[in-house]
Amino acid sequence: MIIVVSPNATPEDLDIIVRQVEESGRQAHLSVGTERSIIGVIGPDMPELQDMFESLPHVESVHRVTKPYKLVSREFRATPTVIDVGYGVSIGGTELAIMAGPCSIENEDHMMDSARGVRAAGANILRGGAYKPRTSPYAFRGLGVEGLEYLANAGRAMGMPVITELMSVRDIDEVARYADIIQIGARNMQNFMLLDEVGKVRKPVMVKRALSGQIEEWLLAAEYIMAQGNPNVILCERGIRTFETAYRNTFDINAIPLVKELSHLPVIADPSHGTGKQGLVIPVAMGAIAAGADGLMIEVHNNPERALSDGAQSLTYERFAGMMRSVAGVAAAVERTVPGVGASAAAR
Ligand code: PEP
Ligand code: MN
Fold it and tell me: I want to staple 328 with a disulfide (CB 3.0 to 4.6 A). Which of 114, 146, 216, 338 is the partner?
């Protein structure tokens, strides 16, 4: 259930309503807005309760949220969520978020060089994995904390927020210390304990869609994080596994407009993992922006053939710069801008 409270309710008035909700044995999630405040009621619905909440002072209306996910739903919040990730970058606004960098953090110099390369092309968020979910236990599995330090230093040097994957609750303090955005990888989308824990951290979290994650399951994964009190959740479509073997995954473009309709959370597209082939990354990136994505996650490597992971889907700096130009044209058509290129330049 969601309770819509009039904008002239004082903090004390809101507190009275929250207490009533809690006394009914439900959890209350308060979201104070300029137009109205919303209290999300988490717990079983009861018609008598709806009537009782409706009779409280300053309550404008009470709605039953029909979806299994509540806090992430458009019914809970009609306007898109815009998330500030530091260094003046936000995700979900007019300017697209372009996250770029190598799949894995390989060494200190390579990370710094990658940061410089993607920054020069206009990326506004730096990516790199220090804890890598690899199919084989014998593959390169990341540098761990040492890698986190290289990533954070490179981000700081280039004035960019950084995103990196957290695979285990074991590493949450270290990852939260170095990352500006914590990534939950596709393989952990339903690691519910991990979702609970990142819900308690005060850092934005990006949840990638699982290899066989349904839209509702993905939104419920985001709900886990929000239900623990972290409102700064970003969704990332990275392709799903289908019968098709001609490419690594099937990038599900339908998911972008659907999720934008169902949820107020920003959605990032990852055509690198979504295709697995560098030749497909640019057209799929353009398609994702046209479909309404709030940004992109792109794997970039100076020498893809020598990358320690995911070289086949990595763009060189030059190709990445070319992608930024192509995406700028599409962005202008959907009234978005790309970082580093103003709206007027994008329209040229
Ligand atoms: C990654 O971003 O490098 C990654 C492992 O992604 P995913 O979880 O989508 O496979
Ligand atoms: Mn990768």
Answer: 338
When pLDDT is cut at 50, 70 and 90, the band that residue 31 belongs to is: confident
Question: CA-CA distance, 287 to 62, in Å (whole number)?
Answer: 38
- Residue 73 token pair: 């739903």
pLDDT digits (tens, 9 = 90+) for 51-76: 999 999 999 999 888 899 988 999 88
Q: Provide the b/e sequence for 56-90 (b: ≥16 CB within 10 Å).
A: bebbeebeebebebbbbbbbbbeeebebebbeebb
Question: How remote is the CA of residue 48 from the centroid of ligand 2, in Å?
Answer: 50
Ligand 1 neighbours by CB, cut-off 6 Å = 103, 129, 133, 185-187, 208, 238, 273
Cα 248 to the center of its chain, rounded Å: 22
Ligand lying closest to the C-alpha of residue 236: 1
Q: Distance between CA atoms of 41 and 61, rounded to whole angstroms?
A: 13
